[in-house]
Amino acid sequence: MAIFSFSEEQSLGEVRSIETSRIMVRVTDGVKLQKARVGRLVAIRSMGDEWLIGIIERVWRHPVESPSLGEEASDEGADFNTIPTEENGVCVNLVGTYRERDGERRDTFTRAVFSLPEISRAVFPIEEKALESFMGILSASSKSATTMPLMIGTYTLDGKAAAYIDADKLFQRHAALLGSTGSGKSYTVASVLEQAAELPHANIIVLDLHGEYSSMTFASHFRIAGIGDLGTEKPDAIFLPFWLLTYDEMQSVFVDRSGENAPNQALALMDSVIETKRKAIKDLGVEHLLEGFTVDTPIPYRLEDLISALDAKNDEAFDTGETYASGARKGQPKMEKGPLNGKLSRFLIRLRTKMNDRRYGFMYQSPSSYSTYDSLHALAASLLGSGKEDGRNPGIKIIDFSEVPSDVLPVVIGLVARLIYQIQFWSNPGNEGDGRHPIVMICDEAHLYLPREGSSIGPLERRALETFERIAKEGRKYGVGLMVVSQRPSDVSTTILSQCSNIISLRLANKTDQSVVKQLLPESLESLMEILPTLDVGEAVVVGDATLLPTRIKITRPRCVPRSATIPFWERWGTPKGPVDLAAAVESMRRQSRS
């Protein structure tokens, strides 16, 4: 049975102007104009069983004064009066085509517009039973035939219709989840995680900067080791030893580029790292690695050995073959300073200072187990392992970065992302690509470590940015997807955002942020983003490859609510829950640990 069976009386108006995907509709009846609301869907019969679907983006009513000949006008001198009339119109943006029959299939919708309507075609608002049926078709079309579908919420136009999105396309082609503080970003992430946890082999890593997702009981929880974790191994504490850093990352952390000795320091660092790693390879008995060895080969070695190699270069002196002819040093050999003699002193002081700073203990004071050859295997298993067990899904991994010092946060997050990407890259793809198990990284608060391109970007941010930009451009080929979450899209790398083929935008009040989102969309959909400042909390505009119809959706509230809700100041001042233990807070500040 056809879902669209309109009568002539239900017509909103008729087509008067056609501009590619945008049409103008003339509305002759002022009462019918009341049915034309911005954001409402309309249908226009194209041919046979094919209907064009559009979204109303503008409605207007203009008064027009038409001249008329007065009754008492004579042939010699006509007397004209004016008759007030109205010109009513609607601008519609075409978004797809509905077919009652498409070969052997029935009731299909596609975002393609195969043909444009003829002039004077009737335009019908989709409402009531027709709207409910059409939304049901959208939901059914978005469901996966083999796995559990991803229901993101309900359509704002029809609250009874569940809104499903294509999860494959959502993660394959990257997604951006954007919205002002308190608009519902964390709720949206939690809702996606809860549904993904039902899949037996889900593989998602959440880069949690503030510990917001610690309430997700179905997930595995890790944290970058803090001061309280030094000296003892804990199953949920992750250390990232310095030997995992690439040469470029080491430069960004250790070398002061503003100093005049920066080139010497960089050269000495490279030589010493190569020298120390070669020795470590031989000591570990894995000489076969020397065949493809580079300065970036991740081989565990002792930081003390690297410092010793740098000390040797800083104190290096050569025997000239001559001796002193007189004085207190008579007969002693003359020594000539090496090329780096005395030029690495400040560099070594900086390196030793960082090594002894317990805030960076996760990198420089890792347990002995992280110095073994197999330690990288164990870390890879923690980051990329999947599989459901005991009602929990260890494949959903939440990594808490809240105790990482802000000055090294970008390079630490970049290090984790690079390890994930490189392990996926070097995995054997198999005959049909089944040798790689796909993984998604949810980048919370992305503006803090994936900044917009500009002169203010430092070397630390640059390293992380390069890693994530490569993932955004090439990750799809190797089974690495991104979901970029940010409250300030104007501060996030445009290169990364431009690679996100799916936009989930909650309320955005800032005009600069709104303009960034509009630039990510086709020109025909820019007007849809005019409603961003007026969205309710938890309501989003979803556009992209993962959804058949660009529309407003009310996000489903998750069962496990993240710890991101804004504290109610006035309410808490009026009815406090209890006394706050300030003494414990002071001691935690002194220990630099909440545990």
TrEMBL record:
Q: Which UniProt keywords apply?
A: ATP-binding, DNA-binding, Helicase, Hydrolase, Isomerase, Nucleotide-binding
What GO terms are given for molecular function? Answer: ATP binding; DNA binding; helicase activity; hydrolase activity
What Pfam families would the database entry show?
Answer: DUF87, HerA_C
Q: Which InterPro entries match?
A: HerA-like (IPR008571), HerA_C (IPR033186), HerA_central (IPR002789), P-loop_NTPase (IPR027417)
Domain (Helicase HerA-like C-terminal) ranges? 432-543
Domain Helicase HerA central: where? 151-420
Name recorded for this polypeptide: ATPase
Species source reads Microvirga vignae
